[in-house]
Amino acid sequence: LAILLCQVNCETDFVARNTKFQHLVQQVAIGTMQHYRGTVEQPSTYAKIGKLGENMVMKRAAWVSVPENCFIGSYVHGAPPSGNPLLSNMMFGKYGAVVICSPPNPCDNSDFAELGWRLGQHVVGMAPLSVGSPEDEPGDDSETKMLAQPFLLDPAISLGQYIQPTGVSVLDFVRFECGEYMETVEAE
After folding, report:
1. Beta strands of 52-168 (E only): which ranges?
2. Closest C-alpha to 149, from 163, 159, 164, 140
3. What's 171's domain CATH number?
4. pLDDT digits (tens, 9 = 90+) for 127-168
5. Domain that holds residue 147
6. C-alpha pair distances (Å), 164 with each of 31, 102, 159, 170
7. Out of 12, 26, 55, 164, which residue is the most buried by the measure of CB atoms under 10 Å away?
8. 184 in a structural domain
9. Does 105 fall in a domain?
């Protein structure tokens, strides 16, 4: 199981809602996925950028792949694609997150779509910096630890308390926010 999260920036919301831009993002995502799989180099998009008439840049991407005994939750905060059925397998928005989880039983990862979506929603809304552990107490220095944060949809409990009855373990997460500062890392 794998998922790709990629960030393609443009200058205006008008262009971001344009079907041509969304199709370009789809091509970038497919090319990036193929690049991660080692089947093709990153595609050139300069001709498309000229046709849309706006400065755009692929800012970053994360390819998340997990073994069969894990699952990936995802959430994107924003508008769905512009009604184009060719884009139905994609989500567009200003914020996105994927959360890597391990179910309590290795064969039981098909019933966690809703939980994965809620965990992704929490990561987008609460912007944790690390997973933390179930033993972390809420407050003070643990406010950036995901499992110790107040659960976005029920602040009376921590996220750790919310998932505890499910037996699911959160292993890691990735969060993208358009416009956030990011250090450039040189590939080796």
Report:
1. 57-65, 71-77, 95-102, 150-151, 154-158
2. 159
3. 3.30.479.20
4. 999 999 878 876 666 689 999 999 999 999 999 999 999 999
5. 2-177
6. 38, 12, 8, 10
7. 26
8. no
9. yes
